[in-house]
Specification:
With 381 residues, the chain is of the alpha/beta class. The chain is 44% helix and 16% strand. The strands form two sheets. A seven-stranded parallel β-sheet has the order 3-2-1-4-5-6-7, with helices on both faces. A six-stranded parallel β-sheet has the order 10-9-8-11-12-13, with helices on both faces.
Length: 381
């Protein structure tokens, strides 16, 4: 089979969609399929690999860029399978590239098979300025066009179906959940893990980690919970991991200078170092404003590593999380409960072992990249 993966970002460009697309491309290529990546031009030339060819002609997704892509795409045998990684803000024009959506519709009418992978659906109304509501309206028009083009819709979480299906305007479409897998391989190096614990854990104290980009909402949740966790008289330390962690630490210690010597940040790490730092943590504190869900790569990474996760339940949280016992949950509106749950887990080594085992099992059974590849391929065999 040949796949054409259309994406707004691809490594070395940073981002969750970039990492996800590369994982899917590698998985499809390993299964024996041929993969063509269609993406914007990066700062340096992207290199192809076995089974994967990278095209950088999408540029800034302008009409002229799309005409160039048309000419190249039309050289491939029909029917061409286009798998579009959808985040509305990814395709330029201040996230309002209606022309790109019509281009996909036209490709579909000419015989291409267009499949949409929904990572983010659209902006919400009444959660910002009137300008945001205007953009949200355009996003819904874009959704209508995309659903006219699509032969199938994949979703990072089941909740996206309820948001998107009304814009199919009665058209029968298959919506399928395709969870996001971990993009960080587990590194087995006990000595490396011990060295990291010795560096950050303040002697015999516990080490609480957080991994993520620290967006505005997550930052607010951490600012409200980490100080309470650090000020309970116990010798535990906090380790912030990943891009944006330095800024998060600065905000924390600016407001709470008394915990400065127990809050650490790594900044962006390569995959190997990130794996070792994750494994060094006793617990990962991963609050989300809309609740944990299967689109949260940061939680997927922790599950794959078997590190117990304390997180929030919210409007986007799937039922499987409560039933799996693979994470410890607190309602998103109950930040004191989040702190208390973390403290209880830090005191209970047996509970951490149970959650660790359940996390690894859940990840292997539901979220491993092999399930993603099998799901994509079995619909096209």
């Amino acid at each position: 089979m040949m796949w054409h993966l259309i994406t707004p970002e691809y490594p070395p460009q940073p981002g969750g969609v970039s990492d996800y697309t590369q994982m899917v491309a590698n998985g499809l290529a390993a299964a024996g399929d041929e993969v063509r990546i269609w993406c914007p031009r990066a700062e340096r030339e992207l290199t192809s690999s076995d089974g994967i060819v990278v095209h950088q002609e999408l540029g800034r997704f302008t009409r002229s860029d799309l005409r160039v892509v048309d000419r190249i795409l039309n050289q491939f045998e029909e029917p061409r399978r286009l798998l579009v990684q959808w985040v509305p803000h990814g395709y330029g024009y201040r996230s309002m590239n209606l022309g790109f959506c019509f281009w996909l519709w036209r490709r579909a009418r000419q015989g291409d098979k267009v499949e949409i992978m929904v990572h983010e659906p659209f902006l919400s109304f009444r959660e910002g300025s009137w300008k945001q509501s205007g953009v949200a309206t355009v996003h819904r028009l874009m959704t209508i066009v995309l659903l006219r083009a699509a032969s199938r819709v994949w979703m990072s979480i089941p909740a996206w179906e309820a948001q998107w299906r009304p814009y199919a305007l009665g058209r029968s479409l298959k919506f399928t959940w395709l969870p996001v897998a971990s993009n960080i391989p587990v590194v087995d190096s006990p000595d490396g893990v011990r060295a990291i614990r010795a560096r950050y854990s303040n002697g015999a104290g516990a080490l609480v980690g957080h991994f993520g980009s620290c967006d505005r909402h997550i930052t607010e949740l951490l600012l409200s919970s980490v100080p309470a966790l650090m000020q309970n008289g116990k010798p535990q330390a906090m380790l912030l991991l990943g891009r944006g962690s330095d800024l998060m630490r600065e905000q924390l210690i600016r407001q709470y200078p008394e915990i400065a010597n127990r809050v650490h940040a790594t900044g962006e790490l390569n995959a190997r170092d990130l794996s070792l730092h994750l494994s060094a943590c006793d617990v990962m504190l991963q609050p989300y404003i809309d609740g944990v869900s299967s689109r949260r790569t940061s939680t997927m990474v922790a599950l794959a590593h078997g590190v117990p996760v304390v997180t929030t339940s919210g409007k986007l949280t799937e039922p499987l999380w409560a039933g799996s016992e693979a994470v410890a949950l607190a309602p998103v509106e109950d930040l004191s409960g989040l702190v208390q749950t973390t403290q209880r887990l830090l005191r209970d080594a047996a509970a951490r072992r149970r959650i660790s085992a359940a996390a690894k099992s859940l990840y292997a059974e539901r979220f491993d990249i092999g399930h993603v590849i099998a799901g994509l391929r079995e619909t096209n065999l």
